[in-house]
Amino acid sequence: MDIIFHHPTFDTQFWLDGMQQLIPDARVRQWRPGDNQPADYALVWHPPVEMLSGHSELKGVFALGAGVDSILSKLQTHPDMLPEGVPLFRLEDTGMALQMQEYAVSQVLHWFRRFDDYQALKLQAKWLPLEDYRREDFTIGVLGAGVLGGKVAESLAAWDFPVRCWSRSKKNYPGITSYAGNEELSDFLNGTRVLINLLPNTPQTVGIINSQMLNQLADEAYVMNLARGVHLVENDLLAALDSGKVKAAMLDVFAKEPLPENSPLWKHPRIAITPHLAAVTRPQEAMEYIAKTIREIEKGESPSGQVSLHNGY
Ligand SMILES: NC(=O)C1=CN([C@@H]2O[C@H](COP(=O)(O)OP(=O)(O)OC[C@H]3O[C@@H](n4cnc5c(N)ncnc54)[C@H](OP(=O)(O)O)[C@@H]3O)[C@@H](O)[C@H]2O)C=CC1
Ligand SMILES: O=CC(=O)O
């Protein structure tokens, strides 16, 4: 079995050695421009078109992340990049759900205990106990209730917050109210105090967090964008912060990354920023997952994690 690997920033040797160890009879190589030798599996992030194009012998392509929007958008301009019938897989959790839970829970608790207000008071040297927020006024709404959104919702429900989620199909997560489809979006938003985004980037979700959505949230709402920058209309968020409709935001992802130095988001006192690291690929977990999936494919099984090219995620 031949496995080819391409990632613009990962430690390639670490991955080649790791995959070799997990699948000892495989020949694992770094793909380099000009390499047109056949392969059974490809592990990729931002793959050059020629790496995959024409390789209909591939039994699977693995994206080395959870979101496959960069690959799918390249497919729009280079439809032959992924030969027809070659399945595309993505990372399902592989250690990312726990990271997302840490990020979301810590920030929700930060807002709920009003640490942002106390930090502002501290800067004015003001000793001023504020009224506690009540859990019943702190409904958390998670946009996207898949592998990561579902786990984030679960971890917040464990802290006894009222939690709801929104997805395409109805969910049955214990203690979480599920809303599905565009027809239930307004009900989902109505009363949501903390909005957490974990949707994939698809034509249906681009720009979804806009004025219209923000205006339907509870007053003094909080917004956490952990999915993709293109989901959020940044100027609409700034307007909602200025009007007071939104009290604060925590952003991990941006329409343009790295976020340009002159972006007004940097200077806004009620916006917190992290540089797209809410959940990073954990190499060992990812390799174990890929090796397991390859074994399942080799046995003729249908492993989970296959991307629906039709749905775009
Ligand atoms: N900031 C970071 O560091 C990271 C960000 N991400 C981002 O998180 C995203 C989510 O990852 P993951 O949970 O694994 O993805 P999943 O595919 O498991 O979940 C996606 C969820 O979104 C729902 N959904 C998709 N389209 C729509 C729509 N049009 N309307 C309503 N709901 C919709 C799906 O509904 P249904 O369940 O019905 O299919 C599903 O519940 C990734 O695509 C990626 O962009 C991922 C990792 C790290
Ligand atoms: O944003 C990261 C990913 O894995 O998707």
UniProtKB/TrEMBL annotation:
Catalytic residues (positions): 228, 276 (proton donor)
UniProt-annotated location(s): Cytoplasm
Segment forming the signal sequence: none
Domain D-isomer specific 2-hydroxyacid dehydrogenase NAD-binding: 106-278
Location, primary (coarse class): cytoplasm
Keywords: Cytoplasm, NAD, NADP, Oxidoreductase
SUPFAM superfamilies (UniProt xref): NAD(P)-binding Rossmann-fold domains
Reaction equations catalysed: (R)-glycerate + NADP(+) = 3-hydroxypyruvate + NADPH + H(+); (R)-glycerate + NAD(+) = 3-hydroxypyruvate + NADH + H(+); glycolate + NADP(+) = glyoxylate + NADPH + H(+)
GO MF, one annotated term: glyoxylate reductase (NADPH) activity
Physiological role: Catalyzes the NADPH-dependent reduction of glyoxylate and hydroxypyruvate into glycolate and glycerate, respectively.
Protein name, entry field: Glyoxylate/hydroxypyruvate reductase A
Name of the coding gene: ghrA
